[in-house]
Amino acid sequence: MKQTGGHMVLGGLFEAYGYHSAAWLQETAQDNAATDVDYFRQIIQQAEAGRLDFFFLADTPAARTENLDFWSRSPLYMNMLEPVTLLSALAGSTRHIGLGATASTSFYEPYNIARLFGSLDHISHGRAAWNVVTTANDYAARNFGLDRLPPRDRRYEKAAECLEVVQALWDTWEDDAFIFDRAGARMFDPEKFHVLDHAGEFFRVHGGLNMCRSPQGQPVIFQAGASETGREFAARTAEVVFGTGATLAQAQAFYTDLKGRMTRYGRTADSLKVLSGVSIVMGESREDARRKWAKWQESVPIEIGLMYLKTDLETDLSDLPLDEPVPEHRIPERSNFHQVYFEEIVGLIREGLTLRQVCRTYNRSKVIFYGTAGEVADQMEEWVGSGGSDGFMMALPVLPDSLTDVTQGIVPELQRRGLFRTEYEGRTLRENLGLARPVNRHVRKR
Ligand SMILES: Cc1cc2nc3c(=O)[nH]c(=O)nc-3n(C[C@H](O)[C@H](O)[C@H](O)COP(=O)(O)O)c2cc1C
């Protein structure tokens, strides 16, 4: 098996109620969970007790402003805390688990991002990670002075420049710049402070970060781009990538492709961890787990399913009869938002499913591991052992039950097999992931 510090990497993708759109409908769901820091504290402490590598929060800086009748029934991103703020609040109640969040390169200034994640790294004693995304919805664009998103390649050009500036700002100070020389009345060594003078296509920054270098040197860089441009960007810059292959063969192809691209940038394969995105659904048997999932899918109203198709296929199919196959000429020529979601729906349509079946089957999570703890662990072992991934980004469909399945079922099973840690190895997220601490560029240059 591929070794990552001796075991597979397990991260969790958390939404307040669980990421399945039926999660908030469950009787056990707490109404104000999305804005309740005490609720999140219990969840993250449970994740840490299970020795998960990191707790991850996705983000988009926008509420939906149209079709509110629909969004009121499937309220993704309509009510949430800003993720870096929430992680900063949770840092004090945890000691080991990594803290990852999304911030958009299309809308945030690099100076803001450098400060936010630099602060989180200090506050958490070295557990911060930034998920670099270009954001894929026009609602967000309209909150930041645009009518719509620029095309994907343009967004990635801006993302690349943004990341470059952020990382340069994180190297403003050398690690030992602050000397606290009381006798000489000098706090820092001015030779070890480096002003950035950046004038690029998208950003102009002349200055330095007003914060000493953080415990990890630089927070860990996450990425999830699936397109050609996204993959190239990840191969060059990312340290953790969320893979989106729907089958083991696709995951292996993605893994090989991405790690292969890294040599062009002089990077070694183990300086990037590929984590396959999977949903975990446990039951007393595989069939039992499948029934559980089907019940969640069916409890989502059909209008909501149509709305998801409209968003992710980037075209409205709601005029079509529900119980007939979708004509292929209704498939748009290309996607501008999430390519992987788009392709998944196109695949279902091409299989000849009726519109209703497409709605019932389609879910943004493409890979679902069903079964008992042993059966789910078998699938994880197979994927990691056969070069499909270095670990998993586990989407937890319904909280807290899905997390309990992981921490009390799957994790102990993986530990018994020697495939997952029983104690955190290091203090920082980098240490636990087996990633090197970046040397400050100014020191390296000397
Ligand atoms: C596990 C995972 C988490 C993601 N989190 C976010 C997010 O928080 N915000 C966002 O705008 N996009 C998010 N994305 C979308 C990706 O950043 C990316 O836009 C998408 O996979 C499409 O790839 P492309 O941009 O190369 O077309 C996520 C994707 C995955 C697989």
Helices, by number, come to 16
Query: What's the CATH C level of the largest domain?
Result: Alpha Beta
Principal-axis shape: globular
Report the major sheet: 8 strands, parallel, barrel
Question: Residue ranges: pLDDT <50 for 5 or more in a row?
Answer: 1-5
Number of strands: 13
For the record, what is the CATH homologous superfamily label of the largest domain?
A: Luciferase-like domain
Find the CATH topology of the largest domain: TIM Barrel
Going across the biggest sheet, name each strand in turn: 1-2-3-4-9-10-11-13
Number of domains: 2
Determine the mean pLDDT.
94
What order do the SSEs take from the amino end to the carboxyl end, as H and E?
A: EHEHHEHEHHEEEEEHEHEHHHHEHEHHH
Range of helix content: 25-40%
What Rg do the Cα atoms give? Answer: 22 Å
Strand % is: 5-15%
Structural class: alpha/beta
* Terminal-residue CA separation: 39 Å
Per CATH, the architecture of the largest domain is Alpha-Beta Barrel
User: What hetero molecules are in the model?
Assistant: flavin mononucleotide
Describe the 3D structure.
The protein is α/β, with parallel strands linked by helices. It folds into 2 domains: 359 residues, Luciferase-like domain (TIM Barrel, Alpha-Beta Barrel); 67 residues, no CATH class. It has 16 helices and 13 strands. Strands 1-2-3-4-9-10-11-13 form an 8-stranded parallel β-barrel, surrounded by 8 helices. It has a two-stranded antiparallel sheet with strand order 5-6. β1, α1 and β2 form a beta-alpha-beta unit. Bound molecules: flavin mononucleotide. The site of flavin mononucleotide has 23 residues, from β4 and α11.
